[in-house]
Amino acid sequence: MKGENFTVVIRVDRSPQEVYDAVNDVRSWWSGEIDGPTDRLGGVWTYRYQDLHRSTQKVTTLEPGKKVVWHVEDADLSFVKDRKEWNGTDIVFDIAKKGGQTELRFTHVGLRPTIQCYGDCSGAWTFYIQDSLQKRIVNGKGSPNPKERKSKKK
What pTM, to 2 d.p., does this model score? Predict the structure, then answer.
């Protein structure tokens, strides 16, 4: 459907709090340079991956064991014509108990099939959520392209 936001869902045999903690440990599952606090309400942090992607996120929602939301305040995606496609979008992690498992529903609100980066960005998010973040949740260690990842805590 053309107007739908990109969403991917995983289910894991971990508690909602464990999933929440893993989401907030961004450096363990998302490659690139991350500078600033990713786990504080109101925290502003930057993400940079090579010369392809730079963005500034603000943590707008932190509900332990339930929800995390990052608002993209500014972005520069060098691989698309409209380099600011992510500006004003929200990256949402909804966490809920479903039967004997915990469901993580990831939605990038504003990442729709009608924008140019949808193919590349949805593919990258699928990898990071279904592979790297899921490994971080289940095994304690993600797989965020470690040779390319540099992060600074603040």
Answer: 0.90
